[in-house]
Amino acid sequence: MEKLIFAQGNGREISFMDKIFGIAGKAAAMAEKEGRDKVTDATIGALLDDEGKFVVFESVMEGMLKLNPVDFANYAPISGIPAYIEVVQKYAFGNHKPNMFTAAAATPGGSGAIRNTIVNYSKAWDTILTCDWYWSAYHTLATENYRKLDTYNLLTEEGTYNHASLKAKCDEYLAVQDSLLLIINTPAHNPTGFSLTNDDWAKVIDLANEYGAKGKKITIFVDAAYIDYTDNPDESRTFLKLFEKTNDNVLAIMGYSASKGFTLYGMRVGAMICMTNKEEICKEFSNIANFSCRGTWSNGTRAGQQLLVNLYNDKEMKAKVDKEREENKAMLIRRGRAFEAAAKECGLEIVPYDAGFFASIPCANPDEVGELLHKKGIFLVPLAAGLRVALSAVNEAQCKMIAPEVKKAMDEYYGK
Ligand SMILES: Cc1ncc(COP(=O)(O)O)c(C=O)c1O
User: Fold this and answer.
1) Ligand 1 close to Cβ of residue 223 (< 6 A)
2) Same CATH topology for 19-53+347-413 and 77-313?
3) What value does the CA radius of gyration of the chain take, rounded to a whole number of Å?
4) Which residue of 93, 161, 283, 369 could cross-link 200, Cys pair, CB 3.0 to 4.6 Å?
5) Taking the CB of residue 327, how many other CB atoms lie within 10 A of it?
6) What average pLDDT does this structure show over 160-189?
7) Distance between CA atoms of 248 and 235, rounded to whole angstroms?
C-alpha cells in the first residue's frame, strides 16, 4: 500500500519512535501486573531516590515559591533576563572561567543550546560529528534541521578516548566541508558515564587549531548537561581554561542545563555560552542567538531564569541548593561505583565509567539481550552499540544485581 504522506517533510524521512518511553511502558505494565518489587526499571533519565521517588530539591522549590506572580506571567527578554545571562556563566564556569570573550543566551534547557548551535554553526546538509555512543536526541536535532550526523569511535581498544578515530573523521569531512561542528558530551557522558581527561581536551583543541590554521572553521560544542554530577565538579571544570589556546577559527560553545543540576527538567532552563579570543565572534554569537531564539521559541521561561538568579544571589539559599545537590550526587556516585564493582566481579565488560546518570554495556545484540532481561523484570535501554543502565533510577542494591544478570543474559544469548 502506498504510504500516506501529508506532512511536507522537505525531503526528510521522518520515522520517529522513542524507544525509551516504549520500554519504560513495558516496565510499568509489568509492575502493574506483578507488583513493583518484581521490576527494576533502569530506563528513566531522571534522578530517583532509593525508594524510586522523583528527586525534587526542596531548596529549589522554596526559591520557586518565593517568586513573584509577575516572574511567572511576564515575558523574558528574547536572549534571557540580563541578570540570568550573567549568573548562568557563573554557574557554568565556576572558578574556571577562561580569560576570553564570553557571552551567553538563555535557551530552553541544554536542548535549545544544541539546536541553536546546529543551526548557526553548521550548514544545511553538512555533517555534524559526535561519538558512536551518543544521546539519540542529537540525531533528531541534526536531521530536524536538515543536517546529517556521523560518528567517530569514542574508545580505543584500551578504553581511552579515541583521538585517532576523531582525527580520521574530521579529515574525512573537512576534505569536503569548510566548517565542522563537533559535539562532545563530557563530563559524565550520556549514555556511558565516560569523561574526557584534560590531556584528551588538550589534544582535541590542538587538532581543532590545526584545521583552524588551514582556514577551516571548527565549532566545538561542549554538552555539559551532567557537569554537576561528577566526583569533583570544580575539578571537572578545569578543562575550560584550555580553550584559551584556541585560534580565531575555533569557537567553543558550552551547553548548560538546569534540568539535572537543579532538578528543573520541566522548567526548560539552560544556556548556550560562547568562548572565543575574538570580540567580533562573540558579538556575532549574541546576535545569532537572539535571532534564533526569536525565530523558534521567542522567549524562555522567565520564572526559571529568575529562580536561578535568586538562588545564586542569596548566599544561604545557594548553600542549601549546593548541599542538596552534593548529597544526591554522592548517592549517584555510590550507585555507579557499586555497578562498576559488580561488573568487575562477574566479568561483565562495561564502558569506562567516570560519573553521571548512566553507564553502558557494549553488546552486539542489545534488543535480544534486553528482551531476555525483561523476563527477569529488568528493563534497560538498547542502543546501537549496547545497553544503557540508568543509574539515576535504581538503588545501590539494584545496581549490584543488574551487572551479573546482564552477564547471565549475555552468556545465555551467546550460548556460553
Ligand atoms: C546528553 C544530554 N545533553 C543535553 C541534555 C539536555 O536536556 P535539557 O534540554 O532537558 O536541558 C540531556 C538531557 O537528557 C542529555 O542527556
Assistant:
1) yes
2) no
3) 21
4) 161
5) 12
6) 98
7) 27
Residue nearest (by alpha carbon) to ligand 1 atom 13: 225
Expressed in angstroms and rounded, the spacing between residue 255 Cα and the centre of ligand 1 is 9
How buried is 2 (Cβ within 10 angstroms: 0-12 exposed, 13-18 middle, 19+ buried)? Answer: exposed
pLDDT band at 399 (very low <50, low <70, confident <90, very high): very high
Residue whose C-alpha is closest to residue 100's, from 89, 115, 113: 89
Average pLDDT, integer, range 325-332:
96
State whether the beta carbon of 135 lies less than 6 angstroms from ligand 1: yes
Determine what percent of the chain falls in helix, strand and coil, rounding each to the nearest 5: 50, 15, 35
Q: What is the mean pLDDT of residues 208-227?
A: 98
C-alpha cell at 306: 529568575
Task: Indicate if the pLDDT at residue 17 is higher than 70.
Answer: no
Q: What's the rounded Cα separation, in Å, for the pair 340 and 36? A: 25
Match 550526523 to its residue by C-alpha cell: 149
Q: What is the mean pLDDT of the chain?
A: 95
Å from CA of 111 to ligand 1 middle: 6
How far apart, in whole angstroms, are the C-alpha atoms of residue 409 and residue 183?
Answer: 33
Residue 253 has pLDDT above 60, yes or no: yes
Per-residue pLDDT reduced to its tens digit, 185-217: 999 999 999 999 999 999 999 999 999 999 999
The string of pLDDT tens digits covering residues 273-290 is: 999 999 999 999 999 999
Q: What superfamily does domain 19-53+347-413 belong to in CATH?
A: Aspartate Aminotransferase, domain 1 (3.90.1150.10)
- Would you say how long the chain is, in residues? 416
Q: Which atom of ligand 1 is nearest to the CA of 223?
A: 3
Distances (CA, A) of 58 to 44, 63, 222, 263, 295: 21, 9, 29, 10, 35
DSSP secondary structure string for all residues of 93-158: HTT---SSEEEEEEESHHHHHHHHHHHHHS-TT-EEEEESS--THHHHHHHHTT-EEEEE-SB-TT
Contacts of 237 (CB under 8 A, 6+ apart): 93, 94, 95, 96, 227
- The CATH number of the structural domain formed by 77-313 is 3.40.640.10
pLDDT > 70 in the chain, percent: 96
* The three three-digit cell numbers of residue 208, written as one number: 581543532
- pLDDT at position 13 is 61
What are the residue ranges spanned by the domains of the chain? 19-53+347-413, 77-313
